Amino acid sequence: MAHYSNGGYSGDEHDSRSDSRPGSDLGDKPTYLLEHLATFTVHQESGIVYPADGMRRLLQLEKTTGIWSQKMQLCLDKQWILIMDFESGNIIEKFPASLIQEPTAFTSNDPMEMYNNILVFIVGNGGNSSRSEMHIFQVSI
Asked: Are the CB atoms for 31 and 4 separated by under 8 Å?
């Protein structure tokens, strides 16, 4: 189910700082409620390359240290994917849509399955020296 929110963003291509301007108008852009579960660096050495690798690691973490989720909103804003704080509406991260790779959904109809509506995507590095990141969310319905 889509939710709508007001918020803003700065001009950086991949901005993980919370320097947004909540007063900016996002209008009627689709915004979805979700829980951020994990972010992993994508590289061969860690064994996290594909979305299924991220899901395996998430389930391992759940069994060992646990997962601390954070309620967020994901907004599709023209050429950008915005990740916003649920309560304040501040933009936490934003990514150019052109850098999104391997968007994948893991779903289950099993009512006992804790992670039954998962969205995973990789944000490519855009050709610079930084590594790609994998983001994992539980999508609220």
From this structure: yes
Whether the per-residue pLDDT at 5 is higher than 60: the answer is no
Residue 2's DSSP bridge partners are 32
The owner of tokens 């994917």 is 81
pLDDT band at 111 (very low <50, low <70, confident <90, very high): confident
